[in-house]
Amino acid sequence: MASIDTTILPFEEKPLYVPSLEEVCQVLASGLTSNFETVQVEVVDCPNLTEDPFHLAGQGLNGNPTLLEIGGPPYLLPHVDYTKLYDLVSISERSLNVTKKEFLAIGAGAGPYPLVDSNCEGMFNLKVHANGHVLSESHLARVTPDRKKVLLEKIPNTETRCALLGNIFLSEGKPGKVLKVKCKKRTGNKDFIASVRTTLEQHYGERTVGMGGVFLLKNGKAKQHVMSPFSETPIYTEDELNTWLNFFDMSATLIAVGTLVTNECDLDLRLQHFHSFSRHGEGGHYHIDTTPDTVEYEGYFNLGNKIVRVDKPVNTHKFGRD
Q1: What's the pTM value of the predicted model, to 2 decimals?
Q2: Residue 65's closest CA among 52, 78, 46?
């Protein structure tokens, strides 16, 4: 099945509030202590994220940083819309207003189900060169027929589609200054990303701040889900959704990519969405660590200048966004 013609998709764009990295560093260094025993936040030169342990397709997170949200859970629940297949390359080019220019796209979404003839999670991680060549380090995760195990697979360079929904951080993949956030021993009840997001939300209020990047679960385990094959019956409630999803405890080291935003700014946004992959065959949708006493996170993030909303559902709902 072909992807939707990008030129006919509705696009909405809004600027984000962009404080200095130094200011955000101070806000997070103070606020994250309510959820973690050890917190270290710095403004640093971005490490080369193509190298171990990150394995991203591009080196950095700088150059026209943009948050991109495509589709949404209403295209999955209560009924799946099989027509919602999106080409990340053409959507990213339109969002960045570039052609024949290098960019990096990383984030979370529903995987390209036609590739494996099954619903799947997508960990999108691709670099597009100026000549159009695609380097994909993307992965997908799906469950075995008995729903007891996860299969993590590399997505080939020739497959650049996501299905149904996606939250992608776009940039030119350049080196530069970024936020480095390290946290150990969770003492509160919020996951790592929710702790970052709510700290920013409490400080900036109605001003919308957005971030994207990559974090490592360096030690411990995390609760993550992988979707089942598409449901033949409608899913109307959170309980029905959680029965359909498959939850696993997955072990470090996990490499998670995605975005967060402090409010919906009238765009019907998903406030946070990160998916992880690994070098040991595990991956899925990140929820929270399950080993708070020993957990260790290390993340590298950049602030988005704008958010681009693509194909916002006309008929929407609020469940299935955890």
Answers
A1: 0.98
A2: 46
